[in-house]
Predict the structure.
Amino acid sequence: MFLRPQLPETLAPNLPTTGQQVHVPACGCQHSAPVAMPPQRSLPTVGSGAVAAVIVGGVVVVALLAAVVVTAVSVAVAALVLRSLLGSRNGIHHR
């Protein structure tokens, strides 16, 4: 149900190799040099708890905005009704 972002697999950048030295053994036998792995950068991960917190926060904000809108509309309707009642009352002459 939760969306899980799929990150593309990043390949190691082709960096120019500078200053590498080749070691030639004096004994004439075959030595293998260890392969230097480039440092891998770890990407920040987003947990499902963080996603749920953002969704819940969004729902709360939308609910508060809806409550403000409903309150504003009800106050406007009440003002119109009172204005209409007071206007009709002032227009009638008492005998």
Summary: The first helix runs from residue 48 to 91.
